[in-house]
Amino acid sequence: MAGSRVGRMSQRESLTGRAVTAMAVGAVALASLVAGSSAATAATGQAKASVKWSACPAYSDDVIRSLVVSDEQLRNFRALLGRMECGTVSVPLDYRKPRGRQITIAITRVKAVDRKHRLGSLALNPGGPGGAGYLFPLQIASMNQANAKLNDRYDLIGFDPRGVGYSTKVECRAMGGQAPEPGPLTEAAAKRIHDSGMANNKACGSSDPAFLGQLTTLNSARDLDWVRIALGERKLNFLGISWGTWLGAVYRSTFPGSVGRMFLDSVSPVRFRLDDFEDGHAAGTERSFGRMAAWIAERNDTYGLGTTSKEVRTTVLALRRAYDEKPKRYSDWEMVADGATVAMLAIQSAPDWPQVAQAFKEMQDEGDTAPPALRKLLGQGALKPPPADAPERFNATTGQAVFCNEDPSRLGFSDAWTTYQRRLERNPVTGRASRFSAQCAGWPLPVQETKVHRTGGSLVLAGHRYEAVSLYEWTKQMHAAIGGTVFTVDDDVHGSVLRVPNCATKLVSYFNTGRIDSGCDGTPVPEK
């Protein structure tokens, strides 16, 4: 549900991008709160905030089918669409200049079914940064019967954060850097990738600094509070996933009196640097591969990859090295498979283990056609782009700007290359899935910092015990920093609470009662 950090990715990068940024977590670096007379002026403007309601966009079945997975969900989505209201809230671009340039935040509302027992408004964020949330209430409520009950007593509020979707935004023409050639990355090739990405970062950040410099998590939190005022709510309840957990943590730290019940799923780090995040993710995927290897070993009669975890690991390492030494060009598919392809398979979560194991098995053959299991995982079906008239799902410019405005690392090439080499050495099976890039090197706008802290109030932090995108350790760190109740999900699937009815039922119960137990089973590991 989280938006991806990168925009258009090559096929060989796409699976990594999905895993990492589904991840996409928030960062720690934001501007200080406005003080003195500016704050008073801002508060006055905020008190006058209002929603400008208008007709909602029309969506074809093709667009809706790109957002749901079944005919039943499509029917549910259509029904909710008929009840959805759409509007915009005007907010300051720069909260230090509340009377200056104004921008708009696009919002949606699906009113509670049970108006007599209504508990308030519940704002929803799917992740990012850069992820669109305009239609997220409909996606959630149409997903399963448990989720639908969220709308019984809550108005569901969707919103596109500043810089995304129907909200005010800008676009940089070039984002990221050059794609790597197949095979192990050489230092010379890495330098070209870094230099290209650094140049694009400089060009993007300099293209509209007045706007791009205001794309921060803190400003999104401020926008969210203006939305609360505009909706006429004394408190706003909040459900956030991935980067949305950082947005939630910043929101409750900045506006403690504005927050009702809050549930954060797949929690971000408390202190964030992109290089540290990539290191943590790589270590998490290497650790998680041990679970996959054990699962495959128990099914050696099916896959023939080894009878113990150690044997499976040895087989997969040999496969990765073989594909790096001689990347495979298939006669029936444009994708070129190399060691990074093997590593990307090795980082997948439990629901995909059967297909991953089958792909490993098929990739040991010498045929010149693409292995069917590999095509199923990485093929055009899995990567099918949305219809041309679909609303924006992810804005790469905003994703980059928020990360880079908040990331203090901004490594030069030498440090970036050393860090990357160390990552490969420490994580021999999955390290090749890490994408070498300039990250935020060359970003010309200043780093902005903030800290989250305890404020009291109702809060649940859902951590997934075996997850590699948002590590379970990060949930514990966030708990130490801001308090709340830890809710442990016994799976490895990023942001899965809403997708598992048993877990979703507990989430809905929490929002209705304020109480929750210690966890749920999460997404089950496949039997075979």
Main β-sheet, in a few words?
10 strands, mixed
CATH topology value: Rossmann fold
Distance between the termini: 26 Å
**Total helical elements:** 21
Total strands: the figure is: 12
Give the CATH level 1 class. Answer: Alpha Beta
Can you tell me the overall shape? globular
Evaluate the radius of gyration: 23 Å
Structural class: alpha/beta
The portion of residues forming beta strands comes to 5-15%
Q: Can you offer a commentary on this structure?
A:
It is a single chain. With 528 residues, this protein is α/β, with parallel strands linked by helices. It has a single domain (1-87, 118-170, 188-522), classed as Rossmann fold. The chain has helices spanning 11-21, 36-47, 61-65, 71-81, 136-143, 145-148, 150-153, 187-207, 209-212, 217-230, 243-254, 274-297, 300-303, 309-325, 339-346, 353-363, 372-378, 396-406, 413-426, 472-482, 501-513, and strands spanning 51-54, 84-92, 102-110, 120-125, 154-159, 236-241, 259-265, 328-329, 336-337, 459-464, 485-489, 519-520. The strands form 2 sheets. Strands 1-2-3-5-4-6-7-10-11-12 form a 10-stranded mixed sheet, sandwiched between helices. The protein has a two-stranded antiparallel sheet with strand order 8-9. Strand 11 (485-489), helix 21 (501-513) and strand 12 (519-520) form a beta-alpha-beta unit. Helix 4 (71-81) crosses helix 5 (136-143) and helix 12 (274-297) packs across helix 14 (309-325). The longest helix has 24 residues, at 274-297. It is globular, with a radius of gyration of 23 Å. The model is unreliable at 1-41 (pLDDT under 50).
